[in-house]
């Protein structure tokens, strides 16, 4: 399928209730609940402390040093979308800043995840417009080459399809396929309930060695205690 110079205007988005359900959980919980899938590489970091987002992906394929397609993508953004941008090759230029954030916010965007650079960090913090990026970089970009919008993209080793749910917090970024959203939200809730029960036992002074039944397997492998 030809993926350059294409804008898909009507991608199917994940159900809004599934987005709301997943937004209650942290990235680590969702990643584990999904079978340890969907995680972006850990170099994608929030550009300011406390940034967090959850929404449906409007995907962008950028060319290195060129942010034209982010402007094209802005027109496709609906309330609650997250712009998720990959690049045809590694680039840490400052593709995104306060002006584009202002534009995306006016469209109802919930934030940006970009495998590239971002700038105007103080302004983004003041706006509380959450951005998760590969780098912070003041270097500007041009508008000269075509990429695409709302095509499947690989962003920091994670496959993102238009309409998938993207969740990001201080622990990283996880992508939940649109078709699995409700199921993953239920699994995340079960996981949190189980963790709360364990938390109470840890608070009471019980050890992981006993809670998780580790003593037998450790002894079988020959772990020896010396006094």
TrEMBL record:
<dbReference type="GO" id="GO:0008948">
    <property type="term" value="F:oxaloacetate decarboxylase activity"/>
</dbReference>
<dbReference type="InterPro" id="IPR005493">
    <property type="entry name" value="RraA/RraA-like"/>
</dbReference>
<keyword id="KW-0456">Lyase</keyword>
<dbReference type="InterPro" id="IPR036704">
    <property type="entry name" value="RraA/RraA-like_sf"/>
</dbReference>
<dbReference type="Pfam" id="PF03737">
    <property type="entry name" value="RraA-like"/>
</dbReference>
<dbReference type="InterPro" id="IPR014165">
    <property type="entry name" value="LigK_PcmE"/>
</dbReference>
<comment type="subunit">
    <text>Homotrimer.</text>
</comment>
<dbReference type="GO" id="GO:0047443">
    <property type="term" value="F:4-hydroxy-4-methyl-2-oxoglutarate aldolase activity"/>
</dbReference>
<comment type="similarity">
    <text>Belongs to the class II aldolase/RraA-like family.</text>
</comment>
<comment type="function">
    <text>Catalyzes the aldol cleavage of 4-hydroxy-4-methyl-2-oxoglutarate (HMG) into 2 molecules of pyruvate. Also contains a secondary oxaloacetate (OAA) decarboxylase activity due to the common pyruvate enolate transition state formed following C-C bond cleavage in the retro-aldol and decarboxylation reactions.</text>
</comment>
<protein>
    <recommendedName>
        <fullName>Putative 4-hydroxy-4-methyl-2-oxoglutarate aldolase</fullName>
        <ecNumber>4.1.1.112</ecNumber>
        <ecNumber>4.1.3.17</ecNumber>
    </recommendedName>
</protein>
């Amino acid at each position: 399928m030809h993926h350059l110079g294409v804008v898909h205007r009507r991608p199917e988005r994940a159900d809004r209730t599934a987005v709301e359900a997943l937004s209650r959980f942290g990235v680590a919980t969702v990643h584990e609940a999904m079978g340890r899938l969907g995680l972006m590489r850990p170099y994608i970091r929030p550009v300011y402390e406390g940034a967090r987002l959850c929404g449906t992906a409007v995907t962008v394929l950028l060319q290195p040093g060129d942010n034209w397609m982010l402007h094209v993508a802005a027109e496709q953004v609906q309330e609650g979308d997250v712009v998720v941008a990959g690049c045809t090759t590694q680039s840490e230029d400052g593709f995104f800043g306060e002006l584009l954030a202002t534009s995306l916010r006016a469209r109802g965007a919930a934030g940006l995840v970009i495998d590239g650079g971002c700038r105007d960090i103080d302004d983004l913090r003041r706006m509380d417009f959450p951005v998760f990026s590969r780098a912070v970089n003041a270097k500007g970009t041009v508008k000269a080459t075509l990429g695409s919008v709302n095509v499947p993209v690989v962003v920091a080793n994670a496959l993102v399809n238009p309409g998938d749910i993207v969740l990001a917090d201080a622990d990283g970024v996880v992508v939940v396929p649109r078709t699995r959203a409700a199921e993953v939200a239920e699994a995340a809730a079960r996981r949190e309930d189980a963790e709360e029960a364990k938390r109470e036992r840890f608070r009471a002074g019980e050890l992981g060695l006993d809670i998780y039944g580790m003593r037998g397997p450790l002894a079988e492998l020959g772990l020896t205690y010396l006094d």
